[in-house]
Design a protein that fits this description.
It is a single chain. By secondary structure, the protein is of the alpha/beta class. The protein has 17 helices and seven strands. Strands 1-7-6-5-2-3-4 form a seven-stranded mixed sheet, sandwiched between helices. The longest helix is centred in the first third of the chain and has 20 residues. The two termini are 17 Å apart. The structure holds 6-O-phosphono-beta-D-fructofuranose.
Length: 394
């Protein structure tokens, strides 16, 4: 890796920085929202109070001795970070730790009556039931008359821009969007992406999902389209093993989205039924790998996941957090070569992401200059820009 090894890992300890605001403001806001959304019992309120103090002023503490994933988290960093402030360890790590601890506080891991109750479900369902989702699904009916190329583009861009709507993002002031002065798409390797899915009908696509609701629905529609057009023969959809980053998709969210599609009208219902049978006959497979919610970059992925991505024709990695994990959560110079930072990835990989954090690679210098001239550094986190980047080894 040329100038890549030296870029600093993002920490949350700089007041005024975006990572600091997430730890100091967004996490407390999420605790408040979750508390208001559920009729929790006294022990959960107590645990949430403790978490609020711990995540803003306290230190990282080991998980309880009987936690099912204590050993995993020890190996993922608790052994190294215990006793340190949440603000002084890698930001990626602190954020993941927050969601793990929040679920513990509300009794998600059980045993007990609150086991498996997703604290973010009310927000996810509200989005899935929204009028915006109705409108997006109705628009599918007009797509059938368009050329194959227009359909490809519309479904790819639906999945890409679906990433703009993430619920955690809306809980902070940074979520307030302004119209972008510079180009929306700051890097576009979509021709290379289509080249990798050129349609022998035997291709396998791994899609590493990000958010539920208005992102997962277009992700599923993209998969349905690729299966129906023979660009792929099989898709593997990676979701999170437990609720994460407020809106990240779990298996339960896939079920909700499919019910929403199949229970709708017109083209949306046809796609829903098609996906339903693709699950039944194995053309669509779900995975909820523990590493999907690990606090680590993909560079450190375990062997079984590496083998799965190695055997795919293409892996599409969705969203901002997955991008941070793909390229490493570092303050790269924006012109850092995307190919260099993803050279470790075991097969062809495409990132589809709207920009919601400081991490960025693969820009050309003209684009960077244009963005800075128009918006200073706000383009990095405003969610108004997006990218499609592809790395295909060999
Ligand atoms: O849903 P996405 O696109 O992964 O975005 C989640 C984002 O939330 C943040 O972590 C802040 O909480 C972003 O920086 C981040 O990567």
């Amino acid at each position: 890796m040329p100038d890549t090894a030296s870029a600093p890992v993002l920490l949350g300890n700089q007041p005024g920085s975006f990572p600091h605001s997430v730890l100091a403001e967004r996490h407390p806001a999420i605790i408040r929202q979750v508390r208001e959304a559920f009729p929790y019992e006294p022990r959960q309120h107590r645990a949430l109070d403790e978490l609020l103090v711990n995540c803003t002023k306290g230190e990282i503490e080991p998980l309880p001795a009987d936690a099912h994933d204590r050993d995993l988290w020890e190996a993922w960093g608790v052994r190294e970070y215990a006793g340190r402030s949440w603000f002084d360890v890698p930001w990626l790590w602190s954020e993941s730790w927050f969601y793990r601890r929040l679920l513990q506080a509300v009794g998600y891991f059980g045993p007990g009556p609150w086991q498996g109750i997703d604290p973010f479900r009310p927000f996810k369902l509200a989005e899935l039931d929204s009028q915006e989702t109705d409108e997006e699904l109705a628009a599918l009916d007009d797509l059938a008359d368009r050329s194959a190329e227009e359909q490809d583009r519309a479904l790819l861009h639906g999945s890409l821009w679906g990433n703009r709507a993430d619920l955690g993002f809306r809980l902070s002031a940074e979520g307030a969007r302004t119209a972008a002065a510079a180009p929306g798409l700051v890097a576009d390797d979509s021709d290379r992406l289509w080249g990798l899915l050129s349609g022998a009908g035997e291709a396998t696509l791994c899609l590493v999902a990000d958010n539920a609701g208005r992102e997962l629905v277009p992700d599923l529609l993209l998969i349905a389209h690729l299966l129906a057009t023979g660009r792929i023969g099989r898709a593997v959809l990676h979701v999170k093993p437990y609720p994460y980053y407020v809106s990240d998709a779990t298996t339960a969210d896939v079920v909700d989205a499919l019910r929403r599609l199949a229970g709708g009208r017109g083209a949306a219902a046809a796609h829903g039924r098609q996906l339903w049978s693709a699950l039944a006959d194995g053309r669509l497979v779900l995975r909820a790998h523990p590493f999907s919610s690990a606090p680590l970059p993909y560079h450190e992925m375990p062997g079984d996941l590496r083998a799965e991505f190695a055997s795919a024709t293409l892996t599409i990695v969705k969203g901002d957090l997955n991008y941070r994990r793909l390229v490493g959560d570092r303050l790269w110079p924006p012109t850092t070569d995307f190919t260099d930072v993803t050279a470790y990835f075991p097969g062809p990989v495409a990132a589809l992401r709207t920009l919601k954090s400081d991490v960025i690679t693969g820009l050309d210098s003209r684009m960077e200059a244009e963005l800075v001239a128009a918006e200073d550094q706000r383009w990095r986190t405003s969610g108004t820009h997006a990218l499609i980047q592809v790395h295909s080894p060999g």
